[in-house]
Design a protein that fits this description.
Number of strands: 8
Structural class: alpha+beta
Bound molecules: nickel (II) ion
Radius of gyration: 16 Å
Distance between the termini: 34 Å
Shape: globular
Strand order of the largest sheet: 1-2-3-6-7
Order of helices and strands: HEEEEEEEHEHH
Strand content: 25-35%
CATH architecture: Alpha-Beta Complex
CATH topology: Peptide Deformylase
Helix content: 10-25%
Mean pLDDT: 93
Length: 189
């Protein structure tokens, strides 16, 4: 097992379209996923996509940590999901705003609109076919990770760049200001 180096915004690894995986159950994919999971456990974080570790393949992993859904009625924490060749599609027109960060955009947080509800699917390295519906943070994290497979980083999805901030400057008031807009701007965790 190996801790992997994370590509940062601007690196070409993050800018292309990742290729489909021909054999999701191959030893190479199992090894990649094990290293990605070890890397993410080491750093802490909710998700990671293979292009972030310089591998141009359609592989993502993510989880729904309890602390990210504390204010989401009915939401359940979820342990790791690994998806190879994932697809994600919106359910309905509704979008909502929420704070995001990214290991490839270290030190920054931004408010990003995402589809409130999505259906997603893919196959695991163990051959299990997964199809799920998701909402809230769960829907957000899968949209964020799948964006990495198409060279899209969260700042590219932002509609108001005045809501891009260094994480350690948020306590000066921006987080509160954004939370106060919750009623008109949708849910902001
Ligand atoms: Ni990311």
């Amino acid at each position: 097992m190996t801790l992997l180096k994370i590509a940062r915004m601007g690196h070409p690894a993050l800018r292309g379209r990742a290729g489909a995986v021909d054999d999701p159950g191959s030893p190479e994919i199992h090894a990649l996923v094990a290293d990605m999971m070890e890397t993410l456990e080491d750093i802490g974080g909710a998700g990671l996509a293979a292009p972030q570790v310089h591998v141009p393949l359609r592989v993502v992993l993510f989880r729904v940590p309890a602390e990210r859904i504390a204010e989401e009625p009915g939401a359940e924490p979820m342990d790791w999901t690994v998806l190879v060749n994932p697809v994600v599609a919106p359910l309905g027109e509704e979008t909502e705003l929420g704070w995001e960060g990214c290991l490839s955009v270290p030190g920054l947080r931004g408010v990003v609109p995402r589809h409130t509800r999505v259906r997603y699917g893919g196959v695991t390295p163990d051959g299990e076919e997964i199809t799920r519906e998701a909402s809230g943070f769960h829907a957000r994290v899968i949209q964020h990770e799948c964006d990495h497979l198409d060279g899209v980083l969260f700042p590219m999805r932002m509609t108001d760049l005045s809501l891009l901030s260094f994480t350690d400057e948020l306590h000066h008031g921006l987080a509160d200001e954004v939370a106060a807009r919750r009623d008109t701007a949708g849910s902001i965790p």
